[in-house]
Structures are given as structure tokens and as C-alpha cells.
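@channel sequence for tomorrow's demo:
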Amino acid sequence: MKAYFKFGFALACFLVGFQLNGWANDLPADTVKPPDTVSVGVYITSVHDVDFKEKQYAINLWLWLKYKNPAFDFQKNLEVPMAKTFEKSYSTLDTLEDGTIYLLMKLQCIMKGNWKIAHFPFDRQKLRFSIENSNFDASQLVFTADTTGEHYGKYFMPEWIKDSLTITSDIKHYETGFGDSSLEKPESDYGSFKVILSVHRESLELFLKLFLGMYISFLIAWVCVFIDPNHTELRLSLSVGALFAVIGNKYIIDSTLPESLTFTLVDSLHGITLFYVFLVTAESVLTARIWQNGNPDKAKRLNKIIHSILFFLYLVCNFWMVFHSYYSETGA
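C-alpha cells (generated this afternoon):
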């Protein structure tokens, strides 16, 4: 009996040990050893040189990181994914009493800007900044945001109004293994620290500056109502002059904006103005024809009626498009 008992006990211990070993092998790696956490904070000193045409802007900021693994070496492994170029103008590295590494650096970056110009110049924009560690993936390193204190100065981007600043940490997924043949799938995840600065501008003055030439062109075409329909050449010359002025004004504005596949406020306002000039030109030809057929009174009366209707419709369309863009973007 003792021999059977010893054999049964040994067999039970073997099976339990085998099962526990199988469970340990089935556990994911990150539960066995969790990734190290890096605390990150920022303070933005300036945002400047906002360039819509080149889709970029410049940002200067202080960045600090706290971590315990010296192998992370952010002085060499820091990556700013959305930056065209970035430069470390200053950095200092200290080790705290508990062994935490404290790295403080000042960055000067030229960032890519994904500008939304559908409602320009009443546009709302989001400026994005993010960092990663190029040598350690999310199984080894994750970020946490240091949200203590303020994160930007009071005196930058004076032409814009700051709405909010959001600081978050995330995991960024890449559809590639970057050539690592040991991976089962050619995919990888990296810890990411993100800053999103939301801004908008109240720019009624800028709107008038940009579109004043277009509205003057509209008035030039409109004054044709005060010229008798029999003066066809004079009326057509004013319409043609207004036409070229509108086109020139649009080219000037478009030269400062990136290309867009959608119809923007700039396109809509210039398009309706060009259409108005076309209708005025067509009306001038029509009333001149009626005058030449021996109906001068009818031609004058029709001229005033058509111009009044066109003028009213033009103003209504302009007010609707402008205030729709203004209120939808600024939330006024």
C-alpha cells in the first residue's frame, strides 16, 4: 500500500507541475514582465511661421522625460514622427535619488500641418505633436502624461485663439515589422505621447482684406444698371473688367492656400461672383437687343428689375455662406 501511495503521490505532483508549466507558457509576455513607464511633460514656448501653402508650422517647446531604464537613451532614440525636421538646442540629464533618470531638453521643430481650409479664413485647426522611442516597442516602453502645471505660454500665435490643449499617451500601430523576421506577423506597436493644440481665429478683418477686391468687382458690374441698355460696349467693358478682377483676386488668395479637392468658402464666394458677372453680361445683351427692336422703355424697365433681383440674390447667398462658415467654425 505504501508503494502504491508513493507512486500515486509522485504521479499527482508530476501532473500538477506539468499543468502549471503549461499555464506559464500560455501567459502573454507583457503579463510576465510589464513594460517600463516613461513620464513625459511639455511646455510650449512658441508656435510661429504657420505656412498653409507648404503645410507646415514651427514649434518651440521644452520636453522632459522621467524613466529608470538607462537603455532607453532618449537623447539618441527620440523620434518625432510628424516633424519634417527637429533640433535639440539644449538638453540636461540628471539621476534622482531613487534612481530615476530626468532628461530635460528644448526642441525646435518644423511640423507637418494637416490644414482644414473649407471655411478659411474662419478656420479651426489642430496642431499635433508626438514622440516615440525608435528602439523600444510597446512591450518594453509606454508613456504616461505629466499633466501638472501649465503647458503653454500666454504670448504665442497672437492671430489665433487657443481653444484647448490635450495631452495623452497611446499605442501607435504600424502595419510593418520593420524587417524583424522573428515576428509572427509583420506588425508592430510603439508607445506614443501626443499633444493636440486646438486653435481658431476670429478674422472678420482678414476676411475683408481678402475679399474686398472681389466685392468691388461685384459693385463695378452692378453699376451697369445705371447705364442705358443701348450703351452696350460700355456695359460689356465694365463686366469684362469685373470678370478679370474677380479671377485675379481668386488667384491671389489661392496662392497662399494648399490645394483642396473640395469646394471651399473661397471657391464658393468667387464662383457665385463670377456667375453674377456672367448674368449681368447676359442681361446687358438681352436688354440691348430689346432696345434695338424699338422698345427702349421695356428695355429700361427689364434692366432695373433683373438687376434688383440679381443684387438681392447675390447678397442673400453671400450672407448665408459667410455666416454659416463663421458660426460653424468659431462656435459663436
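heads up for whoever presents: The first helix runs from residue 2 to 26.
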